[in-house]
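Reagents: none. Just compute today. 3'-5' exonuclease.
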Amino acid sequence: MKCMREKYISVDIESSGPIPGEYSLLTIGACLVDDDSTTFAASLKPLNRNAVPEAMSVSGLSLDELERTGQPPAEAMAAFGEWIAQATQDGTKAVFVGLNAPFDWSFVNYYFHRFVGDNPFGFTALDIKALYMGATGCTWDQTGSSKMAKRLSPKRTGTHDALEDALYQAELFRLTRSISSR
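Predicted 3D structure written out:
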């Protein structure tokens, strides 16, 4: 079996608002794109009480509950870093894959640098929306997950649960990759 140079990792997060630092990373879900039985999930204690009501409503998460049950951010990010290191121990490079990757990556990057000191994904991310646009020739407006799902017919759906969404995104990525390799 040929060893891949890159290991694609689908990552999804839920947050309390639009930007890291001012708002909190609340949950992380991740899976290997090409082996979605290998997963990671964590719920984090919020950094502060800042929250956009719509963000909290969409995710169904509670700052009070996460304050009681979430992991301290340093602990959660260290565990995520260890999971990534384990997944890439074969010498592959971890590649962050996300649906609207700039948003999710910004929180993951901020938290890795603030609480661990380094981001194992580096300074880049692979955006499924952009890949889909390039593979299909559609417009940016046609890259929403619901529009992608109509064309790609994935088995999973998005739920706003970080792990479930990471698994869904991995499937969308695999299906989009199959279009672009035709």
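Helices lie at 53-59, 63-69, 73-87, 101-115, 128-136, 145-152, 162-180.
Action item: order primers for follow-up constructs.
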